[in-house]
Amino acid sequence: METEELYTTYKPLLFALAYRMLGSVMDAEDIVQEAFVSLEKKPLDHVQHVKAYLCKIVTNRCIDQLKSARQRRETYVGPWLPEPFVTDGDILGSGEDPVRQYEVKESLSTAYLLLLQQLSWTERAVFLLREALQFDYSEIAEIVGKSSANCRQIFHRAKRSISGNANQKVAARGKTTALVEQFITAILNGNVDKLMHVLSEDATLYTDGGGKVRAARRPIFGSERICRFFTGIVSTIPANFSYRLCLVNGGPGIAAYVGGDPFACLSFRFGNGTISDIYIVVNPEKLQHLNDTMGIRSVERET
């Protein structure tokens, strides 16, 4: 198989692995690109399983990246959230090409990505290769350099540590999309009662500014405090504010713009017919790829 054909075949899978490992779209894309560049420089005559070989390259590069970023993560200002993976097109996912559908399917909710961060680097790699990408233990052993029996133990240990926190079901997306629409409309209209209605009583708000822009440095707990937060900032929203509903990490979310430039990205966790967690990324370094403004909705101001 030529490198170009291998790239087309395996890029979605490798991106899914790297993004889940790192929680960064740009770093995942760079690592996948580097993996294929290194592949061009090495003859494949003695490589029996190209897919496993590429996954091994990507996994090792991800672990190296995590090690080098460890100190930065420890000194990160405020809550750390994954870089949002935004998919354009119909928010319900209809009419998308097969590659786009695969990428959406293989992305994960923000809540799940945060759970993965609790695992060690090796646990994360083994868990993702087995649970998300359906590798055999023998293949995983070759990729991470451990025995099949050890990989089996690592997987079950990792799965126990994040059990009970399954990703949001796609079947519920229609209802959750309606919740997101009600949420943003209530905020922009200053409708506190409506906002309280869509939030669960014990909802939590996380904002990631990374020390680059103003953001809450601690999570905000409870629907009443979250409502006060949003009512406090709604008057500061610029006149050239706009937004679009989109898929963020495979679920309904919001990309916000000021003057056409990315300003914030919101994703959510849902439970019992309400919004249970809100994740807002305003760190500009994590919004650089949100430059597509198709489908944006400008906000009409009352006079």
Automatic annotation (TrEMBL):
Residues 6-70 form the RNA polymerase sigma-70 region domain. InterPro entries: ECF_Sigma-70_Domain, NTF2-like_dom_sf, RNA_pol_sigma-70_dom, RNA_pol_sigma-70_ECF, RNA_pol_sigma70_r2, RNA_pol_sigma70_r4_t2, RNA_pol_sigma_r2, RNA_pol_sigma_r3/r4-like. Residues 111-161 form the RNA polymerase sigma factor 70 region 4 type domain. One of its GO terms (molecular function) is DNA binding. Pfam families: Sigma70_r2, Sigma70_r4_2. Interacts transiently with the RNA polymerase catalytic core formed by RpoA, RpoB, RpoC and RpoZ (2 alpha, 1 beta, 1 beta' and 1 omega subunit) to form the RNA polymerase holoenzyme that can initiate transcription. This is RNA polymerase sigma factor SigJ. GO terms for biological process: DNA-templated transcription initiation.
